[in-house]
Specification:
31% helix, alpha/beta, 4-stranded mixed β-sheet, 3 helices
Length: 83
């Protein structure tokens, strides 16, 4: 439903790269996903800080076609291969 609506999903998954089924679901459904996986994103407030630090970069993903996966920290938003 999220992919069909062309939204960007945000999740808290420190080990997203290791979850093959989740990566396949992102790929198969064309989802645009941002994973908060940095150690500094433990609490709700820390997660909010990461999102706000990367807000403009996350917002720019709206204009990109899915599937895509980005891992966010306070200082970076890096791509993760879905293969």
């Amino acid at each position: 439903m999220v992919a069909r609506a062309k939204w960007v999903a945000i999740t808290r998954d420190r080990h997203i790269q290791d979850h093959r089924a989740e990566l396949a679901a992102v790929r198969d459904h064309g989802l645009r996903l941002v994973a908060l996986s940095a150690p500094e994103a433990r609490t709700t407030w820390e997660q909010l800080e990461v999102v706000m630090c990367q807000w403009r970069a996350i917002e720019a993903l709206v204009d990109q076609e899915g599937p895509l996966l980005r891992v966010a920290s306070r200082t970076s938003l890096r791509p993760v291969p879905l293969a």
